[in-house]
């Protein structure tokens, strides 16, 4: 069964509850009379509630209705927030300069509104010291706390320790204006 509503001659019931083009109730009428009214007013008869007893049909310009609903769906998709997860990989024995570089990447990603998955990779004997990785992740979370918050706490996953940092919600333009006037 298709998702499209049945229109005009495809409606196969003896009578329908008819709704006019402006939303006014016409009443329960035989399908032949409803189709005749639709042809006279140069509109389509569209079944809007097929499960009702009797089914509800409305007089409307179906082509215009389809176009407007497609435009609404397109606009809704355009306004959706696209969450992107960026990943940064570290080692427990990281050089201070390398740490600052990686932290800079995390800051850049958070400013862009992306989530950051921070992974610490343990090799060999490093696996016996997970607290080093935990401390490193805590330090990174503290360094970027003005830009983001820890979405999922550090957790060990085999040879890796993973933490996710999400960006703080962006302030709206009105919120910034109200803050600047106060």
UniProtKB/TrEMBL annotation:
This protein's name: Translation initiation factor IF-3
Membership in a protein family: Belongs to the IF-3 family.
Domain Translation initiation factor 3 N-terminal: 7-76
Pfam families registered for this protein in UniProt: IF3_C, IF3_N
Gene symbol of the encoding locus: infC
Species of the source: Actinomadura darangshiensis
Compartments where located: Cytoplasm
Residue stretches making up the Translation initiation factor 3 C-terminal domain: 84-167
GO terms under cellular component: cytosol; membrane
């Amino acid at each position: 069964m298709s998702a499209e509503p049945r229109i005009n001659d495809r409606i196969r019931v003896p009578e329908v509850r008819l709704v006019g083009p402006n939303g006014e109730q016409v009443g329960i009428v035989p399908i032949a009379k409803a189709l005749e009214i639709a042809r006279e007013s140069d509109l389509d008869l569209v079944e809007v509630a097929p499960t009702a007893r009797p089914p509800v049909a409305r007089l409307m310009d179906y082509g215009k209705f389809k176009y407007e609903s497609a435009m609404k769906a397109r606009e809704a998709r355009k306004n959706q927030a696209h969450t992107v997860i960026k990943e940064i990989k570290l080692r427990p024995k990281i050089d201070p300069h390398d740490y600052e570089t990686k932290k800079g990447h995390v800051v850049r990603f958070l400013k862009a509104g992306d989530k950051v998955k921070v992974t610490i990779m343990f090799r060999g004997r490093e696996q016996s010291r997970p607290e080093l990785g935990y401390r490193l992740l805590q330090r990174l979370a503290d360094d970027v706390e003005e830009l983001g918050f820890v979405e999922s706490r550090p957790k060990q996953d085999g040879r890796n320790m993973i933490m996710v940092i999400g960006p703080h919600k962006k302030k709206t333009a009105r919120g910034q204006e109200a803050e600047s006037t106060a």
